[in-house]
Amino acid sequence: MSVTVEQVLAALSGVKDPATGREIVADQVSDVRVDAAGEATFRIDLISPGFPLRDALEASVRAALAARNLRGTIEWGLKVPQKPARQDLNRLPTVKNILAVAAGKGGVGKSTVSVNVAMALHRFGAKVALLDADIYGPSVPKMLGTPERETSTTLAGDRISPALYRGIPVMSVAFFVEPGNAVVWRGPMIHKLLKQFLEDVDWGDIDYLIVDLPPGTGDAQLSLAQLIPITGSIMVTTPQEVALIDVRRAVNMFNKLEVPVVGVVENMSYYVCPSCGHHDAIFASGGGAALARELGVELLGQVPIDNKVSYGGESGVPVVEGAPASEQAKALSDVAARAALALSKLSATGPKRSSLLRTVT
Predict the structure, then answer these.
(1) How confident is the model at residue 11 (pLDDT cuts 50, 70, 90)?
(2) Which residues, in sequence order, are CB contacts of 189 under 8 Å at separation 6+?
(3) For the chain, is the Cβ count within 10 Å smaller at the N or the C terminus?
């Protein structure tokens, strides 16, 4: 029996993406072809890198084909959706999604999460850039090591080319101050610098701009929310209540700015003894999960404490690259995949304009 492209599409017409509930033939299936033996080959574009529900989607596709006595080979692709731009903001038109990484306090590993999430998404095949918005304590360049390209002006001379680390464009105030020197600036100076990083930098076509925010709920956070349409944010915490107190303040700030919080990352969750395998909850336990339930969002991951993570940050080789098989790297890669999927789900919603942003200058 001869098989046609139309028959393959008809078989797939009832298959829905498990993340969005939309039929995949609408805009995810392409390049359908059938060989002389009746074997079909087609491409399915996933909506996020490292798509956590790929096995479920593949099972649905194969069941749909089998129901019509068809066979097929899937070629997986990636097409990251873009959330509709807010009409009041036209910056970064070539960036599809902006993910803010926040904590509300310092010392919980926010920059470590930012760098490893960016690296994991890049390894999954996404186009990723990283903005170090921690003006007073920039640490991203240190965590990434030696750049393959330093920051410079573009060939036309009218824009800034970001530094490039392993294919990831990066901007940080650390590129413009002498090592060890303090940045002693008031709010208007921070606002001006961040605006320049956003307007004057040639970021290129990017699926995800990861923004490493400073601790607290101050000028940098408000400036970024005023300047760009942040798609969503993830909150980094350690398990104990003293960290959760500050995270709740940051969540309250994002709620006022109408920036969705898409999930919680519990860093330094526990320690596993390398000799006996004993789990020790050094910083208490359960705080991240409790916070996620309280906020009604996903617990994106629990990252165990280990010197592989700290060594990766010190050596300039993030753990997802330096020790990809480690429990810590797998946890951070899962965080990246789940956060990206959450952003893709948000792409179906329209933009908002916060009343707070209309009144604050």
Answers:
(1) very high
(2) none
(3) N
